[in-house]
Each structure stands twice: as C-alpha cells, then as structure tokens.
Amino acid sequence: MNKIVKIAIISGILVFIGAFFVLQNTQGMISVVTAKKPIAQGTKVTSDMLEMKKVSPGAVIPNAVKNETGILGKSLKIDRTTGDQIPKTAITNESISLSGDQVFMNIPLSKEDGSLINAGDQINIITINGSNAQGNAVNDVKVAEIHSLASSSSGNSDTIATVIVSKKDSIMLAPFIKSNSFKIVKE
Hints:
Strand 5 and strand 6 (about 155-165) form a beta hairpin. The longest helix has 25 residues, at about 1-25. It is elongated, with a radius of gyration of 26 Å. It starts with a helix and ends with a strand. The protein is an alpha+beta fold. Strands 3-6-5-4-7 form a 5-stranded antiparallel sheet. Strands 1-2 form a two-stranded antiparallel ribbon. The chain contains 3 helices and 7 strands.
C-alpha cells in the first residue's frame, strides 16, 4: 500500500510539472499571419502564401494582421520575405473598377519585367511582327495586379501581370500574347 501511494504521488507531481510547462509555453502567445514564402509587392495574396504562427506578445509588430481573411485576395504595398509578419498598413485597399469598355487581361512577364513592374504602374505593350519588326502599340496600360504562379512543369514560379485594357485592344493583343510576340516598356 505504501508503495502504491508513493507511485501515485510521484505520478501526480510529474503530471503537474508537465501541465505547468505546457501552460507556461502557450500562455500569452498571440497568433499572427506570416508569409509562408516570399511575397512581392503588388502580388495578389492567396492562402498558400500565408501561415499562422504563435509568437510572444513582445515579438508582435504594430498593426500585425491576426486573421488571414483580412488579407486574402488583396495585394501588398511592400515585399515580405518568408516568416515576416504582415502589418495592416502593408495591405492595399484599392478597389479596381472597370469602365464599360474595359477588361482585365493577364500577360506573362519575363523575369526581368517581373522584377521591374508593380501594381499601379503604367506600361506600353508593343506587338512584334514575324520579322521582329515593331507592330502596333497599346499605350498607357494600367497594371492592376501582379501574380506569382507556381509552374507545374518547371517547378519555377511565373509572374503574371493583370492589366486593364479596352475590349478592342484585348482582341488585338490576344494572339501576340499567346505567341509571346510582344514587348513591355515601363513608362
């Protein structure tokens, strides 16, 4: 009987110590939204780019986003690297509206163009005819958003610009974009 009481007391003490350490490590932690991978300025944020992390109150940045729903589908004003917390001040609140004859059009960007062009920029799209001669140009095209998409074939990420153009310009540009026969000039 004496041996059973000792084992019960020791077990109780160990359970108490274990519970104390678990509560000590989780008590006072705050969940914040962090970048799961690098997010470029102007990129539309998707759930696969974010993760929730628990951090101590002293490590939380001012105005940190604490819920993913407040950021999904929006873009960022500044770049974020893996593990960075995302402040509310970094989220764009622009709502993009189209006039009657405007449409959104996605354009693949070269690696170089992708690093230079941001949401809100004005660009010119110049088509190239078969002999590498300059064709038509669509000027003053507004870049609405920049998206980074993972390519299933190469494993690399592709950068896509969503631009606002007229319906007429989108019809003219479509075959050139499909055949990658165009150049972009940033204003």
